Amino acid sequence: MNDLPKKDNFKDLIRLKKGAVLFHEGEASSFLYIVVKGKITIIKEDKGRVFPLAEIGEKSFIGELSMFNEEHRNASAIAKDETEVFMIKKTDIKKVLKNCPEWVTNIMVTLTDRLRDVDELMREHRVTDNNLEDQFEIHPEEQKTIRKTLEEYRSRRGI
Q: Residue 75 domain-assigned?
């Protein structure tokens, strides 16, 4: 994406404070998100620790892996800074794709399936950029804060 979408093309703009949870691992996935401003950190919890998987910046999107299936989120997303994201309903994307030839939808489904498979394979074999952990290191105090925030989010949402 070279340019950000125009705000009048989307109804749902969410503003997140630093540290706010956008979505949580295990939640149902109903939206694709486009980061307009700020950064989102994608994290995974394991054995009481929080591990960064990626940092998503402006003009990037999150949630593409579950656009064409009913799988739940496989990681959590937390605002690293004051952040704005557009929310796009999966149903709206599917409506747009209904106007396209069927092969376009088939390509999209195949690509997301392949991305998910590669993502899982990389996690399984712990294949990452050598600098990923240093680049997105989460210090012990920050670990505590994130775990507490996630716990509060789970409690509010009944997860």
A: yes
Whole-angstrom Cα distance, residue 33 to residue 57? 11
From start to end of the chain, where are the E strands? 12-16, 21-23, 31-37, 40-46, 49-56, 61-62, 76-79, 83-89
Poorest-pLDDT segment among 41-45, 61-65, 122-126, 154-158: 122-126
For 145, the domain range is 7-157
In a domain, 13, yes or no: yes
Query: Which pLDDT tens digit goes with each residue over 43-63?
Result: 988 888 888 888 999 999 998
Nearest to 123 by CA among 47, 37, 54: 54
- Which of these, 82, 77, 83, lies nearest to 146 by C-alpha position? 77
Q: What is the DSSP letter of 156?
A: H
Establish if 1 belongs to a structural domain: no
For the chain, what is the domain count? 1
Q: Minimal CA–CA distance to 21: which of 136, 139, 144, 152?
A: 152
